[in-house]
Specification:
Layout (H helix, E strand, L loop, with lengths): L1 E4 L3 E7 L14 E7 L1 H12 L3 E8 L2 H12 L7 E4 L5 E7 L5 E6 L8 H6 L1 H4 L4 E4 L5 H13 L4 E3 L9 H5 L3 E2 L3 H8 L6 H13 L4 E5 L5 E5 L2 E5 L12 H13 L5 H16 L11 H9 L1
Parallel strand pairs: 1-4, 1-8, 2-6, 4-5, 8-9, 9-10, 10-11
Antiparallel strand pairs: 2-3, 6-7, 11-12, 12-13
Helix pairs in contact: 1-9, 7-8, 9-10
The chain binds adenosine-5'-diphosphate.
Adenosine-5'-diphosphate binds next to helix 9 and helix 10.
InterPro entries: Carboh/pur_kinase_PfkB_CS, PfkB_dom, Ribo/fructo_kinase, Ribokinase, Ribokinase-like, Tagatose/fructose_Pkinase
Pathway: Carbohydrate metabolism; D-ribose degradation; D-ribose 5-phosphate from beta-D-ribopyranose: step 2/2; Carbohydrate metabolism; D-tagatose 6-phosphate degradation; D-glyceraldehyde 3-phosphate and glycerone phosphate from D-tagatose 6-phosphate: step 1/2
Subcellular location: Cytoplasm
């Protein structure tokens, strides 16, 4: 199965025609509470497609935490290793979505940051049984480093979705089989501006030199770019009407993990993940927008 180590947050989503300027107050159109967090989204995405998913994470002993645990169970994710913090509140994300479907997000990680290296050490028996380990960066970075190193030492491929972007050590990058930045994150990781597919390729080449095996730069509506030692390949996206880009990248990563652990080639997996991403941006919400396997198969036939 797939082990996903990551964040669980309650998303507080406000819909507005435009985002407010500093000091400005606006009336928005709608408000919703919706379970999210990159880890939880990716776990739900892979589970909806049919993958066996174990989530490692932490929530608070509060209403949001109980709700997130319940949602993960309903999605069929194994929740035995989602701990409950004694002192920290469940993570929250404040999300503003404008008319164009663009989002602006502030995350307050709370309990997510409590998970540390000792927790990973204690969970070695769980991690070493994984076919693949998936992580993001809404948790403690040294915990991620420890988990990547442990997975790598057991020969388990690691997908690292470097979001939100931060500077990473070469040692961490050397333990990553699949790095999946979007264009902004690729730019920050490589220390250059990424405004085109050509820029994305240049940034990915820099990261390849640092020891990542495969870089998959997600390009929004343009799909994704695969860069590895065999070369570069642009896999075009699927045209859809974007309603809400929340969880596009998360659905992509969950789908990628599902496909790679189902024996698909990287090219096949990225094409499928593009379809899942397109379906997710066509619906509102994070977890509620994630497609089931049958929907993706139907979409790929059309
Ligand atoms: P993030 O959400 O992390 O910023 P992207 O915007 O690159 O990441 O989206 C991730 C993936 O979702 C893309 O690689 C693509 O497959 C799909 N996707 C995102 N936006 C669109 C869109 N407007 N139309 C079609 N597919 C999209």
């Amino acid at each position: 199965g797939i082990v996903i180590i990551g964040s669980l947050n309650m998303d507080m989503v406000v819909r507005t025609s435009r985002a407010p300027e500093a000091g400005e107050t606006l009336f928005g159109q709608a408000f919703a509470l919706s379970p999210g967090g990159k880890g939880a989204n990716q776990a739900a995405a892979a589970a909806r497609l049919g993958a066996e998913v174990t989530m490692i994470g932490r929530v608070g002993k509060d209403g949001f935490g109980r709700e997130l645990l319940e949602v993960m169970r309903q999605e069929g994710v194994h929740t035995d290793y989602i701990g409950q913090s004694e002192t920290q509140a469940t993570g929250v994300a404040s999300i503003v979505v404008d008319e164009e479907g663009e989002n602006r997000i502030i995350v307050v990680p709370g309990a997510n940051l409590e998970m540390g290296r000792e927790d990973i050490a204690a969970l070695e028996p769980v991690i070493r049984q994984a076919e693949m380990v998936v992580m993001q960066l809404e948790t403690d970075l040294s915990m991620c480093e420890q988990a990547a190193s442990m997975a790598h030492s057991h020969g388990i491929p690691v997908i690292l979705n470097p979001a939100p972007a931060r500077v990473l050590t070469d040692e961490l990058l050397q333990h990553v089989a699949y790095l999946t930045p979007n264009e902004t994150e690729a730019g920050i990781l490589a220390g250059m501006a990424v405004n085109s597919i050509a820029d994305a390729e240049q940034a990915a080449r820099l990261l390849l030199q640092k020891g990542v095996e495969n870089i998959i730069v997600t390009l929004g509506s343009k799909g994704a770019l695969i860069v590895n030692h065999a070369g570069s390949r642009h896999i075009p996206g699927f045209p859809v009407q974007a309603v809400d880009t929340v969880a596009a990248g998360d659905s992509f990563n969950g789908a990628l993990a599902y496909q790679l652990t189902s024996g698909k080639t990287l090219t096949e997996a990225v094409r499928f993940a593009n379809a899942v991403g397109a379906l997710a941006v066509g619906k509102q919400g994070a977890i509620p927008s994630l497609p089931q396997l049958a929907e993706v198969e139907q979409f790929l036939k059309e």
